[in-house]
Amino acid sequence: MDAVNTTGTGASGLASRAARWVMVAVWASGVASGVLAGHFSPPRPLLMLAYLVALAGAVLLTDPRDRPLTGLRALSIPAATLSITLLVLIEGTVAKDVWLIDYAAYLVALQVARGNLVTGLSGTALQVAAVLIWAEIGGQDAGGVANMLAIPVSVAVLGLLWRGILRGMVGRERRHRSAAAESERMTRALDAASGDLQRELDAIRAQVSPTLRMLRDGGELTEEALTGIRILEGAIRDRIRSPRLQHPALNAAAAQARARAVSITMLSDAEDERVLGDAAATRVAQLVTEAPSGATAVITVGGEQQDAVTVVLDVEGTHHRYVVDDADPAR
User: Fold this and answer.
1) Residue % of the chain over a pLDDT of 90
2) For the whole model, what pTM was predicted?
């Protein structure tokens, strides 16, 4: 793996300035959303501390040394995740501040992707245990607790996939090539992977820059600005969690639906490089467009049905399930 590390994959791309910028930008979007939603008024010291711990965790996670985290730096990430989770649970406003619990889950999941498998998974386990203990003590609804834990568990799995896929690629190349031929081939493959990652990070940066500049310059925090930030945050989550569902028609429909206060979650297999076909995207976009204000939409693709998109709509407590065929996805 030494040759791989020297070309930028020892930390799975998380040792770059761009990765740190994206993590801080997502954190800033969450802070801005909380400010606009009035989560800090009146001042809530525990919540503010949780946000500061989240920022520190993002900075430590994106340490510029191109290798897995070591020593106290490695231990600081699960410690930050557990601290954030406990602060939110103690604050007693989980419904409003669940974004922080999700962000804390991203930290340990990305630590797994960076190569700290045991430490990162331990952080996920501690976070899940904290939520379950809190739920048991407080007699929380099982469905609500399951929703709280959906993202922490999902991103932990995605972190394992990310790291596993990278290690698998390297292993296959080394089994089938001599040392000299392998070195040349891996250099080309890793250059391409680094270029893809950089392009994705640049695209996210271009997406969030106007909003961050507006906040930096003291722009007026109108209701329209708040809506725009919510839409932006959702779009970034979609890019990270559902690459296969990134189709212009569906993205546009999701943005319009979020503007109507429709909650949308998209998930797809991390290793699936295909993109939703036009016909399937048009149908799914239509379902999203027809969702009324206040509805919840969960859109998934992959798993046992690789060529089917599942859309689950929750409208005033009534669930509607649709399966859309995607037999002709784009490559």
Assistant:
1) 27
2) 0.50
